[in-house]
Amino acid sequence: MGDAFLPRILYLVHNLSDPAVARRLAMLRLGGAEVEIAGFRRADAPLADLPAETVVELDITHDARMLQRLLVTLKARYGAKRWAKVLTRPDVIIARNLEMLAVAEGLLSLWDEPPALVYECLDIHRLMLRQDRLGRGMRAVEQRLMRRANLLITSSPAFLERYFDEQGAPPALLIENKVFAPGHDVVGRNVALDGIDGPVRLGWFGALRCRKSLAALDGVSRAMGGRLKVTLRGRPALTEFEDFHETIEAAPHVNFGGAYRYPDDLPAIYSDVHLVWAIDFFEEGQNSAWLLPNRIYEGCLNGVVPIALAGTETAAFIERHGIGVVIPDIEQQTLQSLFAGMTPERLRELAEAVATVGKRAFRCEAEECVALVSRLAAVAGIKRETEMAA
Questions:
Q1: Residue ranges making up the domain that contains 378
Q2: How many CB atoms lie within 10 A of CB 265?
Q3: What's the domain of life for this entry (predicted)?
Q4: 87 φ, ψ to 5°?
Q5: Is the Cβ–Cβ distance between 332 and 213 less than 8 Å?
């Protein structure tokens, strides 16, 4: 077993260059774990600079090419005896998504005493929800692999209620997508609190992948003739739009400011808007309705008022906190009525409500990292020195 305070963790990931992977690694290390990492790299992504003791790049994968990803997953699983030689025997293996859970199962037999296995799943892919033979087959594979797992990590209660509770999942640990920014104590401030007059300013930041949202925001901003300004920042999924950049060029009141640095740029980009768009139809009625997106935490931490769609977990989240605006749909009349009603007084009222919520609701603190690693240590049977002395 690892040190009483330093459980050894092997983190298996499907995309080494995903910024969320680096954040999770940093959380584990801040919580007191020693971490090694192995995984795939996207063909268009740079080599990852990750805060881990050992980084093993298993193979190159290509976005949206499922067969190729399946083949490299099988290669990594059945070639584990070769590539895992450089690894220390871990106390815990965390497998980030289904393909890495398959790789992890292949690793368990390499050591006389198998490590504990944790399945981390933060999105439910649409393939898993299909009602045809492929969907049933995918769920059957997941159910079989989950039998070896000691713990499930997920990010939204709706994923448990609407999916995992029906799949025979192991005990679950909920870790929300809160802003992880140790050493970055400065947060933004809603411009509505400063009483500055001008157009309503809306931000849509992060993973931009919903063409319905883009069309709706372009349409309502045109209809309002400059009284609504929309700013987009982040990484657009270009495969999901007919022509993202051409649409932006033609939109008179929509601006795309490119990618931003996390967490450094968060206070500045959110302090430039009144409202944050927290609506996504990318996987309508399924994953998009169940997830709690990063932008809800980023926006609220920096004082911005969230807009959510009724019936989603995001709407339930902001209603629990008594903040934000929930709308029934994104029809043009609904949006025009919403934004036309955003007087300076109304915006200030909404901004003050967000500002009264404690930052811990939106920001991951160091003690949460310690609690995470303590839970992982407990799953592996590691006791702290104080427990062993009792």
A1: 8-178+365-389
A2: 14
A3: Bacteria
A4: -95, 145
A5: no
Strand order from edge to edge, sheet including 275-277: 254-256, 228-236, 200-208, 275-277, 305-309, 325-327
The verdict on 13 and 69 lying in the same domain is: yes
**Does 255 lie in the same domain as 287?**
yes
Judge if 201 and 342 occupy the same domain: yes
> Taking Cα atoms as reference points, which of 13, 119, 26, 24 lies closest to residue 57?
13
Is 253:226 a contact under the CB 8 Å cutoff?
A: yes
The pLDDT tens digits for 107-135 are 999 998 999 999 999 999 888 999 999 99
Q: Closest Cα to residue 159, out of 282, 288, 317, 284?
A: 288
Q: Are residues 85 and 51 in the same domain?
A: yes
Q: What is the number of structural domains in the chain?
A: 2
Nearest alpha-carbon partner for 188 in 294, 298, 296 = 298
Residue 50 lies in a domain: yes
Q: What is the pLDDT of residues 328-365, one digit of tens each?
A: 999 999 999 999 999 999 999 999 999 999 999 999 99
DSSP β-ladder status, 54-61 and 34-42? parallel
Confidence of residue 183 (pLDDT cuts 50, 70, 90): confident
Confidence class for position 293, pLDDT limits 50, 70, 90? very high
Q: Is pLDDT at 253 greater than 50 in this prediction?
A: yes
Quick one: tokens of 10? Answer: 């092997």
Could you tell me if residue 1 is inside a domain? no
Residues 343 and 197 in one domain: yes
- Residue 242, number of CB atoms within 10 A of its CB: 10
Per residue in 49-104, pLDDT tens? 787 788 888 888 876 677 888 898 889 899 889 999 999 999 999 999 999 999 99
Mention every residue, 6+ apart, whose C-beta is less than 8 A from residue 292. 155, 156, 176, 177, 313, 314, 317
Average pLDDT over residues 313-319: 97
pTM: 0.91
